[in-house]
Structures are given as C-alpha cells and as structure tokens.
C-alpha cells in the first residue's frame, strides 16, 4: 500500500482500528445488583458529599478530552504497528558488466596505407588510409555497442603503456584513442609485454574493487568479467615475457584474450604475422583469434567479439526507505505525560482550594 511518498509496510494492522468500538458494543460494562444499606441520615450525607444518587450501576465517566486522548492514542498505536515508511527520491543503480581492455599496436608498420576509409565506397572514390586510422574508425563504432562496460586502452611498440585506465566514459576513451599516433611507443612490437601489462591493470582494478566492497560492506557485487582485445600487425620482437606465457597467466587470472591479426599475412621480416602464436595466445586464454586484411574483415572481427561478449549492463531504479514508526509512539508518550501532568496539577489546585 502506498500513498504518494508514504508506504505502510504492515497495512493489515488497520483492521484493528474498530476493535474498541466492537468491544464496547459486544462486551458492555459489568453491572450487578446488591442490597442497599439503609442509612437514616442519608439526606444529610448526600448534601455533605455533594453527590446525588442515580439508578443503575455507579460508573466513572471520562471527560471529553480523556476520550479524545484515548481515541488518538489508539489510532497512533495502530499507525505505528503498520510501520509507516517514507519513500525517498528515485535512485538509479547501474551495474557495469565487464572490463574490456583494448590493446593497440603502434609499431611502424601500422602506418601502412593499405586500408580503405569508411566513406570511400559511398563517394565512389577509394581513399587509402593507414592501418591505425582504420582501427580508430572501427573502434569508434565498436565502443557504441559496449554500454555498461568499462573500457581501457593500452598502446605498445618498443614498450607498453596505459593510455586510458578503465573508464565508463566512452567519449573520453575515444578522445584519448584519437590522440594516438604511429611509433609514439616505438617502432617494434612487444606483444608479450603488452599482454602482461593488461593482466597487471586487471589485477589492480580487482584489488580496488575488493577494497571498495569492504568499505561499503556490499558483498553482493559480482566481480566483473575481464576481456582483452589485442590488435597487432606484426610478430613479437623482444618482449621480456613470451606471448604464450603471458596468455597462460591471463587464463589463470580469468582474463580472456581475443586476438586480431591485421594486415597482409604474406609480409616477411619483423612485420610478418605469426598466426601460430596469435592462435595459441587466444586459445590458451579462452578467447578467439581473427585475421583482417581489409576494413570489412576488421569490422567483422569486432562484431564477432561483440557477439562473443554480449552486454551485461543492468540498470535498476529504487527508492530509499526510512521508517517513521517511532514518531507515533513518541507522540503517545508525550500526550500521556501531558495528560498526567495536567491531571496532577488540577488535583493539587482543588486540594489547595479545599484547605483554604
């Protein structure tokens, strides 16, 4: 039962409201007949006491204010038993589904202009763009489908570094992605180190989550799923940690890695794609491996990842509740304190007048 901003948790107590009236009708006051004592000086006694006889039982009669106090007390008691609760303003609680770390290769080969721009086919002309620019365009569409996920960004070349820690702000994430440029992390491809850094960031995020749950005493929060999407266009060159070893650690830490191999597989040298390593990394961590030699295949790879990692976003609306049942009980106590205090003062005044 709800009345605007007020809710009664136990409304069935309202059925008790007419109980005093029912008792008054069904169980009247006790009456009895007894033989009267004959007093010869009865008239004198009546005048001295200032009390006049009446037929029937002699009953004390409550004054109007006493009756009002009794009625109000009963109503307040029943109201308190219903446990009235005030509803606060609606609050929205958002539950983020998973953490997605996007790992992007910024080695020199990402400057190769062998991909087609998004608007080229519609305009009738073919505009070649670099692999990095194609990646930015595809990722801009990909993040729109990740509502509820926290996104992070790691860039790697000669070394790996965190460009964006986990955030739910997609606009900020895209801005930081667009600020990246080829070779800003070096010319080579340290794939294993990049995967290792991603695992470290996931671990730090889990520790922060755990400490936050302890502070808020909220043990019902489920841990977020951990997903890494690694895009590279070359072979690992000189990582401190081998990609396969990093993938095994990721599997132990419940981190799934989806690998996207970008570029021409016929390339030789350091820029050559080692599909064997890429497939083994994805398989060892429970992820999938994809190969994209053009923009369409790159989009299809991210779409497939989106299907493999569906949204886990949940949004629930609730209204905080505050019980006010103690206030009617406090009011009853105050009323009776006032009534007893008033009756005591009145009795003292009358006794003082008699003595005078």
Automatic annotation (TrEMBL):
Asked if the keyword Translocase belongs to this entry, the reply reads: no
Q: Could you tell me which InterPro entries the record lists for this protein? A: UPF0353/GerABKA_families, vWA_BatA_type, VWF_A, vWFA_dom_sf
Q: Which residues cross the membrane?
A: 12-30, 327-345
Q: Which CDD domains match?
A: vWA_BatA_type
| Keywords of this entry | Membrane, Transmembrane, Transmembrane helix
Q: Which top-level group of life is the source organism from?
A: Bacteria
Q: What is this protein called?
A: Aerotolerance regulator BatA
| Pfam families membership | VWA_2
- What positions does the domain VWFA occupy? 99-305
Tagged with keyword Membrane? yes
Q: Origin organism of this chain? A: Aliivibrio sifiae
